[in-house]
Amino acid sequence: MEVARIQSSNSPRGFANLIRSDFWFLDGNIVIIAGQAAFKVHRGQLERHSDIFNALFSLPQPEDAELFEGCLYVELHDSPSDVFYFLSALYDGLYFKAPRANDFMAIASVLRLSTKYFVEHLRQRCLNRLDVDWPSTLAGWDQREHAATDTQGRYMPRESCPHPVLVIQLALDLGIPSLLPAAFYDLARYGPSKIMSGAALPPSALDEYLLKTQPDNPPSLLAVHLPREQLQRTLRGRERVQRYMAHFIASSLQSRVPARDCTYSLDADPSRPCHESFYFIMLNVLRSVGGIACGRDADTLYTLTQAMEMLSRTDFSDGQRQCGLRMCQPCKMDFAACAMKAREDVWALLPKWFSLTGEDDADDDTFP
User: Fold this and answer.
1) Tally of CA atoms within 13 A in the half-sphere of 101 that contains its CB
2) What angle do CA 104, 106, 109 make, to 5 degrees?
3) Residue 83 confidence (pLDDT) above 90
4) What is the CA 192 to chain-centroid distance, rounded?
5) What residues are paired with 224 via a beta bridge?
6) pTM (two decimals)
7) Are 353 and 240 spatial neighbours (Cβ–Cβ below 8 Å)?
């Protein structure tokens, strides 16, 4: 927002010292007031995109209607930052060069007002953008996770995606259930203390303006916390995700039977290389689940991917040289298929585990 304030005798009472936004056109013919900010824009631009504004501006006005610097004005009960981002999208378009967490405030603002004022093309663009970070398919999730990992293998999701607490709040407020399974799963990967801590709300356009004009008295950053019901839903889902991984370890690694066509099945010690390889994978998976590796102890989808990647790695050591697992190819293929199906099962069960299906499944700990 522009660093300027309106101080005019032509302003209606109660609207003195408003912040004049970047959207203050000399040829504008309507003033929009939202909170502390004023926007002088064009009726036609708003009417063209929104039936709500078209109907609002079509209402007959009394001849002695109060004017704001020579223009009719309308006061909106929306935050000034929401209105600023909404007008930016209407006038300048809504473009995203690459996924950035800092885009969230603009996306959320435009989504709120495009939903409220029925501007469908902006609403759909926001939903499409959110679907990239919070996909409804496992393939989309894998693509998102790949994009959040840099060329050196560092996993930095908060640079490209906003904190899941913010997304959960937005999805619940606007009724967008498709975002919730991925957002709750993402949040559940944090430790319980971080889940309870909530998330800092990024600075809005108004915050940035106040920071410029009042550098000695910067606006305080607000923290967003989930209500008790959503915290319980998150922690319960986290427990279920971890229990599934424990079940997989016990049934698909610890007591795994080699493939029917195992290459080593007729040896004196049948299938010993494959049994040893399964045991080695189990130890590494337990290390990951314990949080020693990467700190992703509740990320079952990632852990299962790691288990599959071990089948083709050649950087293990037998004490003398680097090598790969001695598991035979039929057993590798059999285990890879098992782990892939487990990932698909996990993804399909997320809505149920996080109580998003409307079913009373709090005590349902069965696994496929």
Assistant:
1) 18
2) 105
3) yes
4) 18
5) 199
6) 0.88
7) yes
Three-state DSSP at 92 gives helix
Question: What are the pLDDT digits (tens) for 42-82?
Answer: 999 999 999 999 998 888 878 778 888 888 899 999 999 99
What 3-state class would DSSP assign to 265? coil
- Report the relative pairing of strands 316-317 and 322-323 from DSSP bridges: antiparallel
Please report, as a single letter, which amino acid is at residue 149: T
Using DSSP's 3-state secondary structure scheme, residue 214 falls into coil
Q: How many Cα atoms sit within 13 Å of 114 on the Cβ side?
A: 24
Rg (CA), the chain: 27
| Closest by CA position to 356, among listed 165, 143, 126, 185 | 185
Other CB atoms within a 10 A radius of the CB of residue 206 amount to 22
Q: How far apart are CA 78 and CA 113, in angstroms?
A: 8
Counting other chains too, the contacts that 170-175 makes at CB distance below 8 Å and 24 or more residues apart are: 170/108, 170/111, 172/230, 173/112, 174/111, 174/112, 174/115
Tokens of 335: 């285990």
The beta-strand segments (E) located in 203-293 are 223-224
- From the number of C-beta atoms within 10 Å of its C-beta (0-12, 13-18, 19+), residue 358 rates as exposed
234 token code pair = 């998150």
